[in-house]
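Hi there,

I know you've been waiting on this one. I reran it after we fixed the sequence typo, so this is the corrected version. Both the input and the resulting structure follow.
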Amino acid sequence: MMDEYRKGWALRYLREAKAELEAARKMPYMAPSLTLEAIRKARNAIYYSLGEPVFIELLLREESVIEKAKNDPILMLLVEIDQMVQELVQMEEVDGDTIMKQANTLIQIATDIVETLTQEKVGLTGNGGTSALTTVKETAEGTKLEHG
């Protein structure tokens, strides 16, 4: 069971991630920075849903995490999300369509995780009818998230 503190932060970060992505769609001139912020907030929502974010970040920084992740679908998902965020943050030129699609996918995944673990619904924006549960299931079966 999740405590109220982590639940509150997970829901807040998810709502903010959705709002940032929606703002990015409405203001193309600010889209790159808003989209990156949406991605970071979606990642944070996932972290708060699963545990203490600081500990999750420390775990993901360990040298042996890739080896451990091969046998743990949740850890593999976290590793892939972290890698995607790092790649997007370090890109010099950002392709708006690609980053928006990746942000949308990550927010869908975060929505499924947060709503499942908190047992609360958060309003959906721009999910395009695609279930993030399918994405999570494919990831758990060894399929990689799109890294662009």
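Quick highlight: The first helix runs from residue 4 to 26.

Best,
R. S.
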